[in-house]
Fold:
Amino acid sequence: MKIAPSMLSCDFSVMGKEAKRMEEAGADLLHLDVMDGHFVPNLTFGAPVIKCIRPCSSLPFDVHLMIENPYDYIDDFADAGADIITFHVESRSDIPLTIEKIKSAGVKPGLVIKPKTPPEAVFPYLKDIYMVLVMTVEPGFGGQSFMADMLPKLEAIRDEAKRQGADILLELDGGINNETVIEAAKAGGDICVAGTAVFKADDAKQAIEQMKKACSDY
Ligand code: DX5
Ligand code: ZN
Structure:
């Protein structure tokens, strides 16, 4: 299991240091939650902030756009140094055009589904994307409880991807800790995003190691 700490739970006064700290703690990717106060009822940071953190870490930047019009901002996030850009199927942007724009910018595209969205929503795009992010909480805030009833979506997406011959990664986001990471692994997840469980731990390195160890048998 790969672990992607979510910078939503970091100390915003020292984001560069926090990014570096996660790399030293053994993170596989850095997850960056962009919220616009419209698509979700919260505001975080945008491309200029991500650009500022970029030199502080060599980890892949996994940018999760919780914004109404992702299409309009793709070039900004690519320029800021995103390696993966995921956007919501529930956003207002045209899905195929946005995927194309991400690819043209040299970035890996991914689609995200909210808890109430069925897995079928991503089926038409599986061949064109790198990753599907399944939300295991309502997007907008860190520190919420894991929704285990989202897990069957992973199998549905995995099966359909196989049927189509599409090679995709499955990422889970929200409420991941030492216990829920095991459920995510059993359900076939490849990457788990963890905010609270990593940043609020006394020892981030130990927290990441424990999560990886907990699901190493699956
Ligand atoms: C929620 C964000 C998540 C969040 C996860 O909208 O997409 O990435 O930061 O935080 P925890 O791990 O605390 O649930
Ligand atoms: Zn996220």
